[in-house]
Amino acid sequence: MTGRTLLVIKIGGGAAIDHAAYAHFATDLASMGEPAVIVHGGNAEFSRLSAALGMPPRMITSASGRVTRYTDRATMDAMLMAYCGKVNKTVVGAFQAAGLNAVGLSGMDGRVAAGRRKPMLRGTEDGKPKVLRDDHAGTIETLDPRLVRLLLDADYVPVLTPPALGEDGVPINVDGDKLALALATELGAAALLFFSDTPGLLRDVRDETTLIREIDAADPASALAAADGRMVVKVEAALGAIARGVGRVVFADARVERPVSRALAGEGTVVRG
């Protein structure tokens, strides 16, 4: 990897991001020849599988308005099947087909990402107050990049996904954007690119013409004010990346051809340091 520019790429888990989209990422990266670490989500497949198993998603809204998926043991089993199984191997297959030697991992493997479960999940569900103590969600407390570096140095493409490793070997559901942020900062990435099923950050999430072209990391209050709902976590991750020395952060569209090249050329929402 010596002398080349490392990219950390987070690919969201929306329903519109499918095998064809993964293939576009793979062929684009293969043509560029730069090393990359991929972090992917799997929310749409997770929800589909949970529903098929008779476990529709339970969403808890915190006092601050953030919506979190409640992850009990059975739901975590479904998450492992969706994220570490079907989605991870679909991404790996697309990259292998493009000639990139991808290796699929979770944050648990090699203790890449470790943390602890939250003691309780407090909020409202369907308007009713809830306090849940068996949630498997948590936060990343330590990140060990040695396995990822070994793979990069051997010209593999690491493809990572939550969960992280919890106490006593228990998997914990952690935010994929924060996993990407932690990897980008620990590995000294030149760029952190967030891809989803929108053109970038939108002022109105229902209107793709309301794309925000640029965010000033020097004005975090305005940057966060421009975000809505789930995008708040993404903006926080972007601001954290710039503050920790990542050279470039872009929010871009995962549904287009040559997605990485276009993001690096400035398409989407560019976070300026």
From TrEMBL:
<dbReference type="GO" id="GO:0006526">
    <property type="term" value="P:L-arginine biosynthetic process"/>
</dbReference>
<dbReference type="InterPro" id="IPR004662">
    <property type="entry name" value="AcgluKinase_fam"/>
</dbReference>
<comment type="pathway">
    <text>Amino-acid biosynthesis.</text>
</comment>
<dbReference type="GO" id="GO:0005737">
    <property type="term" value="C:cytoplasm"/>
</dbReference>
<dbReference type="InterPro" id="IPR036393">
    <property type="entry name" value="AceGlu_kinase-like_sf"/>
</dbReference>
<keyword id="KW-0028">Amino-acid biosynthesis</keyword>
<dbReference type="GO" id="GO:0003991">
    <property type="term" value="F:acetylglutamate kinase activity"/>
</dbReference>
<dbReference type="InterPro" id="IPR001057">
    <property type="entry name" value="Glu/AcGlu_kinase"/>
</dbReference>
<keyword id="KW-0808">Transferase</keyword>
<keyword id="KW-0067">ATP-binding</keyword>
<dbReference type="InterPro" id="IPR001048">
    <property type="entry name" value="Asp/Glu/Uridylate_kinase"/>
</dbReference>
<keyword id="KW-0547">Nucleotide-binding</keyword>
<dbReference type="GO" id="GO:0005524">
    <property type="term" value="F:ATP binding"/>
</dbReference>
<protein>
    <recommendedName>
        <fullName>Acetylglutamate kinase</fullName>
    </recommendedName>
</protein>
<dbReference type="Pfam" id="PF00696">
    <property type="entry name" value="AA_kinase"/>
</dbReference>
<keyword id="KW-0418">Kinase</keyword>
<feature type="domain" description="Aspartate/glutamate/uridylate kinase">
    <location>
        <begin position="6"/>
        <end position="252"/>
    </location>
</feature>
